[in-house]
Amino acid sequence: MKLLLDVSVVRFLPGRAVFLLVGIFVLTACATQRPVDTTPPPLLNSGPEIQVADVDVLEVTPQMEAFLERYILPYSDPETRLNLLTLAVTSSGVLGFDYDEARTLTAAQAFDTRSGNCIGFANMMIALARGAGLEADYQEVFRRPEWTSREDTLLLIKHINVVVSSPRYSYVIDVSGVEIRPSERRRIIPDPYAKALYYNNIGAEALLGDELPTAWAYLVTAIDTQPDLPDPWINLGVVYGRNEQLNEAELVYQTALQIDHSEYSAMNNLYEVYLVQENTEAAEDLRVKVEKYREKNPYYLMKLSEDSLEMGQYEESIKLLQRAIKKKDNDHILYFAMAKTQYLSGQTVAAQNSLHRARELAPQKMLTYYNRPLKELVLEN
To answer: pLDDT for 73-112, tens place per residue?
Structure first.
């Protein structure tokens, strides 16, 4: 289940802050979590402090109770209740649910709108299942890192779903439709951990909108809720970086690594801070691990491709983009980069094919842009 903490933002431009927009969710297998006693530093020059209200993400409203009373609770058998609840949230079910990765909602909000991302869906399903007398828990799934992009920001996607149990059976309910392999590790996470992900996602969305005071407030609330969750610490580092508080960014990235020493997103972002600070010795200590991590990131490979392109190394640039697309073959940005590189290298037919694929994958708002002549697009970029 995709979550926006799923947010890990990483920028590789010199002098720019790098951030992991988490919230959504990356924990390394067998990570060791340690007690954290660091209080996040204040955000400077931020104006009036944003107050974050305590939210009951699992609140069952009268409307939800009415739904249970009408469709689920008349049946005393737990197996029947579980089956009916599962069927109710399918696209053709009486409740239905539309997956929307940009909406982090409480159970009540997700029920009212019949939509949301994985956090919203999980909150709604767990609240309804427990209201129906069933056992229900959040489950985190540890998959290979999956990257996506939003304009100039890279996001690292984590995965969460729901386990609902009756006396005889347990079902994993996942709204995203993502295939989960039997070999992929998973674990049940407690309610406060999931609630911290909720606050973290909202903070991450504010960060994407460059609303730094709001992002800081929600990420600090996530930390107060679950101090040993590394994701909000990493996202908080991005907030400080954008606010030109590099010492504070360094501190919170180090805290994330104290929680999970193998948290590569924190390591990557800390490496970027050291470079900006010209702390070459500290940066060198992280360089090998960071480079190994970046090789798995298709957008970093795209950045290397751009560097090769600037030096006129067309063949190397195309090879790097081929590797990037092999890792992620559903992003129009990568195919447009390939079209541009192929065009500049004289491969005009291949370039037009790549541009066609970019059009196929692009959101509706980008089609007008991509329908322009490729030569014109290349000259702009």
So the answer is: 999 999 999 999 989 988 788 888 888 888 899 999 999 9
Entry pTM: 0.77
Higher pLDDT, 294 or 13: 294
82 contact partners, CB below 8 Å, separation of at least 6: 129, 132, 134, 164, 165, 166, 169, 171
Amino acid at 266: A
The dihedral region occupied by 45, where left means phi > 0, alpha psi between -120 and 50, and beta the remainder, is left
277 secondary structure, DSSP code? T
* pLDDT tens per residue, range 191-242: 999 999 999 999 999 998 999 999 999 999 999 999 999 999 999 999 999 9
| Amino acid code (one letter) for 295 | E
Alpha carbon distance, N-terminus to C-terminus of the chain: 35
The answer to whether the Cα torsion of 211, 299, 143, 233 is positive or negative is negative
Amino acid at 95: L
Judge contact between 137 and 126, C-beta under 8 A: yes
Cα–Cα distances (Å) from 32 to 6, 230, 233, 266, 271, in that order, read 20, 11, 16, 15, 21
pLDDT band at 354 (very low <50, low <70, confident <90, very high): very high
Q: Are strands 98-99 and 115-116 parallel, antiparallel or unpaired?
A: parallel
Alpha-carbon torsion (303, 306, 308, 313), positive or negative: positive
Q: CB under 8 Å to 155, separation ≥6 — which residues?
A: 4, 6, 7, 8, 9, 21, 147, 148, 149
Three-state DSSP class for 114? Answer: coil
Beta strands in 35-152, from DSSP E residues, in sequence order = 98-99, 115-116, 135-150
Give the pLDDT confidence score for residue 150 in this predicted structure: 66
How many whole angstroms separate alpha carbon 169 and alpha carbon 156?
33
Do residues 156 and 121 lie in contact, with contact meaning Cβ atoms separated by under 8 Å? no
According to DSSP, residue 25 is labeled -
Residues near 197 by beta carbon (within 8 Å), at least 6 away in sequence: 3, 5, 23, 24, 25, 119, 160, 222, 229, 231
pLDDT tens digit string along 119-158?
Answer: 999 999 999 999 999 999 999 987 666 666 666 566 677 7
Per-residue confidence (pLDDT) for residue 7, from 0 to 100: 30
Go through the domains of the chain in sequence order and give each one's CATH number.
Answer: 1-259 (no CATH), 298-380 (1.25.40.10)
